[in-house]
Amino acid sequence: MSAAPLLKVNNLKMYYSVEGGWVKAVDGLFLDIYRNECVGIVGESGCGKSSLALTIIRVLPSNSKIFSGEILFEGENMLELSEEDFRKRIRWKKISIVFQGAMNSLNPVITIGDQIVETILAHENMSKKEAWERAENLLRLVGIDPKRAKSYPFEFSGGMKQRAMIAMALALNPSLLIADEMTTALDVIIQAQIINLVAELKRGLNLSSIIISHDIPLVFSSSDRIFIMYAGKIVEHGSTEEIYYSPMHPYTFLLLDSVPDIRGKRRTLGFIEGAPPNLLDPPTGCRFHPRCPFTIDICRKEEPEMSTVSFSHHVACHRIEEITLS
Ligand SMILES: Nc1ncnc2c1ncn2[C@@H]1O[C@H](COP(=O)(O)OP(=O)(O)OP(=O)(O)O)[C@@H](O)[C@H]1O
Ligand SMILES: [Mg+2]
After folding, report:
1. Interacting residues of 80 by C-beta distance below 8 A, sequence separation 6+
2. How far is the CA of 269 from the centre of ligand 1 (A)?
3. Residue ranges covered by each domain of the chain
4. pLDDT value, residue 274
5. What is the CA angle 28-29-32, rounded to 5?
6. What is the pLDDT of residue 189?
7. Would you list the DSSP string of 284-317?
8. pLDDT of the residue at 270
């Protein structure tokens, strides 16, 4: 890892205004991504993953508001840029995204190739012929035969549409790609192929990526590090191996479907039930405490700080020492 992160998110708070108050979708969130690194962000539905992605790319619903924080990209705070500056210099050119559900937003009456060419020409000054060449190269890069460029979206399988969306996101040669739940509608084999494609692109294109998912095993093969997100916050992050083989946060156990008994030898306590909280009125203290089998008094009252387990592994849990001992 090089010294300065490509992207650093500091204490970001992004809330939605709704009847009854503010939905605290991103609430004091820290994140860093280095050049050439692939980071997975994993959490259940409603934990704020897409809200975080939309804040980074600055495509925000009108009822949202950023309350605090910094989003440093190459050292520059993106939140201080005007919309025009961000659009001209950053969005799609430096930071790009495959939105959640994006493959359904392909225009059904325009060929895949034309849609990629349109994206290129909207931002770059080049001839249509050059843009077609670039589009064909992009399709090749994502594993689609360029001869298929003249096909319409309905002629593509789900996996191919998703590859086309990735090609489009790469059209302007960004240095950071955010992929939000890009494989949810696909079968497991195609899911793995698409995720591995993103990992290969990292090697070929000098690209950093953020892969957002519900599923730790899915991001396992492609991610260098994994951030676990719960109720608007990061609760644990570490190298992929640390998260997968030595998880520390009870919520990460839940995601991995194995809960140790911290009073004795590793036994499985079984399933953790319930769902993430309503972020209009999140629980006090540790937001996971109502679902956590290890909750004690302090968990209800005080928010746990992020503590260091190793150089790369960090966990926010009051009972970390007991869990470490188990
Ligand atoms: N435009 C909006 N207005 C009000 N609340 C919103 C809006 N968009 C999202 N939310 C709320 O913000 C919270 C976080 O939602 P978000 O979509 O970021 O979660 P997610 O982790 O991406 O979930 P999923 O895995 O289902 O995609 C949820 O409580 C959601 O209901
Ligand atoms: Mg989402």
Report:
1. none
2. 30
3. 35-59+82-229, 251-325
4. 85
5. 145
6. 81
7. SSSTTGGG-TT--HHHHHSPPPPEESSSS-EE--
8. 58
pLDDT of residue 243: 94
Closest of 47, 87, 62 to residue 214, by C-alpha: 47
CATH no., domain 35-59+82-229: 3.40.50.300
- Model confidence pTM above 0.90: yes
What separation in Å is there between the alpha carbon of 47 and the centre of ligand 1?
7
> For residue 262, what pLDDT is reported?
56
Query: Among residues 57, 77, 59, which one has the least CA distance to residue 69?
Result: 77
Return the ligand number nearest the Cα of 229. Answer: 1
Burial class (CB in 10 A: 0-12, 13-18, 19+), 125: exposed
Residue numbers in the chain where pLDDT is lower than 50: none
Ligand 1 atom with the smallest distance to the CA of 232 is 14
**Which position has the token pair 């969306």?**
165
pLDDT of amino acid 264: 52
